[in-house]
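Why do we bother with holo predictions? Because pocket geometry can differ from the apo form. Keep that in mind while you read this record for iron/sulfur cluster.
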Amino acid sequence: MNNFPRSAYVHIPFCHRRCFYCDFAVIPLGNKVETLQGYGSKTVKEYLHFLSREILSIEHKSSLSTIYIGGGTPSILDPKQIKELIDLFKENYGIDYGAEITMEVDPASFNQNDLYGFINAGINRFSLGVQSFNNQILQKSGRRHLREDAEKSCLWLQREYDSGLIKSWSLDLIQNLPLSGFKEWQDDLKKAITFSPPHISIYDLNIENGTVFKKLVNSGKLKLPNDEEAFKNGESTYLILKNSGYSRYEISNYCLPGHQSRHNRVYWSGSGWWSFGQGSTSSPWGEKLTRPRVSKEYKKWVNSQYEINLDSSLINKDYVYKELDEKIMLGLRLKEGIDIHEVFKEQHWGNRKFERNLSKLLKEWESFLESGLLVRKGNRFFLSDPKGMELSNQIIISMFIWWDRIN
Ligand code: SF4
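The structure, written out:
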């Protein structure tokens, strides 16, 4: 068995329009887009052409155990286009028996026939971006779908899961959106649970530069929950989901037994993955490589890969994972936390440096250990749940401070 990545992320950058909080590498195509022919199809076909070239540019291909088609809004594509993508992997990399093949879907961009088309193409897990079931909140956030679209999509996915046509699905919500007070948030959670999704992702709203929300915040026109309200929302999420049988396996992710996202665990564990498409980041052997976020630059970049041979430039057998801070951060997000000795070992520090850096980190974490936000069992450190998970930023920031100081 070789050590080539067994997971691939594919970025489909198209959306109908940009939501008010989103700073992803997306290409808004408007409402009338038709990806096979007609309006917008030329842009889409051209992108898919370069995406395929990039996928084929890898020399050291190995059979894949997870594929994740994200975006953007991949469900803007026609099922035929999704099938072509999956077939490309099947024919050139191989796909393991029982592989997890996930696709992100947006409630207002697919119908029931499309769903069957995606399933026939090979998708066996869906991630549905509901964000909220409240029409006022959805509109205030620039989402294109309404509560009715979300409910319909949930019912379709619930039915296909119950009938065994798909292996799992995730219902994704955003916590602390504008207008989402304690009551509205509880309503959203309770509504989500009625569809019994095997997996629920709860993302915290981040105000990113360049977004509509950022401008509104700067001009004082957007009221968001304060820290106390946000903490209360987070705590209620944990309790409501726990009482409904969900366990939190990562800060933003809950699931019923057996439904953790295998693909996301690859990122969090620091194992290698391929990534294809503009703005996406791969990490085949520890070293990260981010593609240009703009289409024109991305296309140029793909062309240049054939000249410099991207694949061989990525094979750096002597590479040491330098971003220890990132590895600790990702590890702490997981329920099981991290074995600090294991991650320190990868740095190949001498004994004295190892001990010195460890004692400095422990000093930084002393108060969190005392207050119970952080828990230590032998060499393993993990966040308490829900308090440590909800206040994880404080612990992670202190670790970044430690990292800056020792470098
Ligand atoms: S649909 Fe998703 S990717 Fe597209 S703009 Fe909205 S949040 Fe961003």
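The mean pLDDT is 92.
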